């Protein structure tokens, strides 16, 4: 397997009454794609502030954007983009940790340098760290959110301001491959980017009933992943925790099952028509 591309492009996009525009960028940055994402982030509802939020989403066909967004003194919004190759993002899987590694340096206009991820993975998630994450009075919401995402659902909660604590905590509980295939937002003004887990100031209609809201998450049916995770953390079982984080996603399990069925059908056909 080839090593992932460690290069990270970056840019600053400003959104205000004049629209969205890139004001600082590294070489090769796709301005149009960044401006499209900023527009889909949504228009600010009256009276809603965004002091600090993070989100991740696809960026073109082969990249992922990790974005820090915050209010600007002039009343607009500032979006700091970090754009990395999909294969690097799959190795890392935690957009919050990626954003924390590269805090904004104050560059607001003009050319800025690209970045390079060091030749290392993110620190191992430990039992002690998960015990701190799960030391919350609303553990049912946290575990229900993680299980719903593992099951392939969407998690949307209504918040007047960003909920960094909840989204960061849920991302600490997910298996590695689920983290790499799901898109979180600790805040967004609209649901147009289709985040798998997000805090929104106003929840849009859900005619298909395919998402899970706060009340439903607290009563979400306990399933094997959530239960096994809680037992491993409470027992201090690091080996079991590592095993749970390395599990397949539901999509991978489905593809494996279909491949097994397809192989069995092919063998049956061969045995019936080709073998004496």
Briefly say what this structure is.
The protein has 11 helices and 11 strands. The protein is an alpha/beta fold and 276 residues long.
Write a concise keyword list for the protein shown above:
7-stranded mixed β-sheet; alpha/beta; 21% strand; 276 residues; single chain; 2 domains; 11 helices
Written account of the structure:
This protein is of the alpha/beta class and 276 residues long. It folds into 2 domains: 1-123; 125-245. The protein is 39% helix and 21% strand. The strands form 2 sheets. Strands 1, 2, 3, 4, 5, 6 and 7 form a 7-stranded mixed β-sheet that branches. A 4-stranded parallel β-sheet has the order 9-10-8-11. A hairpin with a 2-residue loop joins strand 1 and strand 2. The longest helix has 24 residues, at 250-273. It is globular and about 50 Å long.
């Amino acid at each position: 397997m080839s090593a992932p591309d460690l290069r990270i492009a970056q840019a600053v996009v400003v959104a205000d009454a004049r629209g969205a525009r890139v004001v600082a960028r590294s070489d090769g940055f796709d301005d149009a794609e960044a401006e499209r994402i900023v527009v889909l982030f949504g228009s600010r509802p009256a009276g809603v502030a965004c002091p600090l939020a993070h989100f991740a989403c696809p960026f073109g066909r082969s990249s992922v954007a990790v974005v820090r967004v915050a209010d600007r003194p002039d009343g607009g919004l500032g979006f700091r983009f970090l754009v990395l190759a999909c294969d690097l993002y799959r190795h890392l899987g935690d957009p919050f940790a990626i954003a924390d590694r590269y805090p904004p340096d104050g560059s607001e206009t003009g050319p800025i340098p690209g970045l390079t991820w060091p030749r290392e993975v993110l620190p191992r998630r430990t039992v002690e760290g998960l015990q701190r994450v799960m030391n919350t009075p609303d553990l049912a919401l946290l575990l229900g959110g993680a299980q719903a995402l593992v099951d392939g659902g969407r998690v949307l909660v209504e918040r007047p301001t960003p909920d960094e604590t909840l989204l960061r905590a849920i991302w600490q509980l997910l298996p590695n491959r689920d983290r790499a295939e799901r898109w979180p937002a600790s805040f967004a003004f609209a649901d147009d980017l289709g985040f798998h887990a997000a805090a929104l100031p106003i929840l849009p209609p859900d005619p298909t009933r395919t998402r899970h809201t706060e009340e439903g998450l607290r009563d979400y049916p306990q399933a094997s992943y959530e239960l096994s995770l809680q037992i491993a953390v409470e027992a201090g079982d690091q080996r079991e925790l590592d095993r749970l984080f390395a599990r397949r996603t539901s999509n991978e399990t489905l593809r494996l099952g279909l491949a097994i069925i397809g192989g069995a059908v092919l063998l049956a056909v061969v045995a019936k028509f080709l073998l004496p």
